Amino acid sequence: MTEEPRPTLEAVAARAGVSRATVSRVVNGGPGVREVLAEKVRHAVDELGYVPNRAARSLVTRRHDAVAVVIAEPETRVFADPFFALQLRGISKELTSQDIQLVLLLTEGRDDHERVGRYLAGGHVDGALVFSLHLDDPLPGIIRRAGVPTVFGGRPGWPQEGGAESRASYVDCDNRGGAREAVRHLVGLGRARVAHITGALDQTSAVDRLDGFRDVLGDVDPRLIAEGDFTPAGGERAMRELLDREPELDAVFAANDLTASGALRVLRERGRRVPDDVAVVGFDDMYPVAEQTDPPLTTVRQDIEEMGRLMARMLLRGRAGEEPAAERAGVVLPTSLVRRASA
After folding, report:
1. To the nearest whole percent, how much of the chain has pLDDT over 90?
2. Which residues, in sequence order, are bridge partners of residue 338?
3. Which of 7, 116, 176, 315 lies 20 to 30 Å from 144 when distance is taken between CA atoms?
4. Per-residue pLDDT tens for 172-188?
């Protein structure tokens, strides 16, 4: 069966009764075409089923209609953690609404960093959305050298040349303020030995949440702080350490909901009733994690999906030149405490 030839710009021009240049301007969003002619071109495009050639279009507009999403985690972590799915959903919704493709790039080692750098520098995308960076990650420098517009998910905390950190575009939530609210809630319940399971302390979100914990409790006993890594297994390990060191603890603020889910399992194994013996508060309010723990988790809510949408929106506004560079610094979203049965 012979495949029908794809409609060309010339065919659209002939159907619409205009020049090829006019069709090109309408298809590529160029200025200077009267609305009556533009409507004829759009009608001809629909009739013929013309699909613009993206490669040719990028030569005209110098845009690729594609954005790279770079996650600095191995794929086993990305696909197991609902946080990434929620953020990607927000990003995807915003990009799809603008007919822009999402290109997902994951990094697990130095070879992956170099591959991502080559791809970004190769002119395949209009910009990059980057999140889950660690303080010693080489990606910020690699991305800077690639020269693509970038928005980060999370407050930057890595050193950059010329003090560029303060000018980096990013979207984050109020990690420190949310942590303070969580700990104040536990203290308000009359809890006297409040412990904290941190996230990975090479990430600014974990450091900010630890600082919020200390803001409320002051010079807290170091035995009441155990380092986790934002995973259920890390929460289990840290909860065992805390109970071994301080058996009389009566509350736990966990750095995220996955960490809290691991802590709840250990408390149940050790015969501690939640919240009677130990109250537990998480962070994120990730569906379905927070609602399906036993008992359902009191937690600090951040709008993860909205963070993804805002990251994409900020990048696209910058690409279109609609937002001055001075206004593209940081956006910090508010958090709120969601009370359930665990505290």
Report:
1. 57
2. 299
3. 176
4. 999 999 999 999 999 99
Q: Is 201 or 123 the better-scoring residue by pLDDT?
A: 201
Backbone angles phi, psi at 330, to 5 degrees: -130, 145
- Helix, strand, coil distribution of the chain in percent, nearest 5: 50, 15, 35
Q: Is 196 helix (H, G, I), strand (E, B) or coil?
A: strand
- Torsion of the alpha carbons at 238, 240, 242 and 243, rounded to the nearest 10: 160
Which residue type does 293 have?
Answer: T
Q: Is 59 a residue whose pLDDT tops 60?
A: no
CA distance 216 to 301: 19
At 57, is the pLDDT very low, low, confident or very high (cuts 50, 70, 90)?
A: low
Q: In angstroms, rounded to a whole number, what is the distance separating the alpha carbons of residues 18 and 255?
A: 62
Task: Specify the DSSP class assigned to residue 53.
Answer: -
- Enumerate residues 6+ apart whose C-beta is below 8 A from 89: 305, 308
- In angstroms, the Cα distances linking 183 to 131, 191, 206, 283 are 27, 10, 15, 11
Residue type, 39: E
Cα–Cα nearest to 285, from 314, 306, 310: 306
- Looking at the chain, list the stretches that DSSP marks H as alpha helix, in order from N- to C-terminal side: 9-16, 20-27, 35-48, 54-61, 75-78, 82-97, 110-121, 139-146, 175-188, 204-217, 232-245, 257-269, 289-292, 304-319
User: Strand 170-173 and strand 150-153: pairing?
Assistant: parallel
Read off the tokens for 118.
């080559």
pTM of the model: 0.79
Residue in this structure with the two tokens 């591959």, named with its chain if needed:
115
Q: Could you say which DSSP state residue 10 is in?
A: H
- Residue from 326, 315, 323 nearest 63 by CA: 315
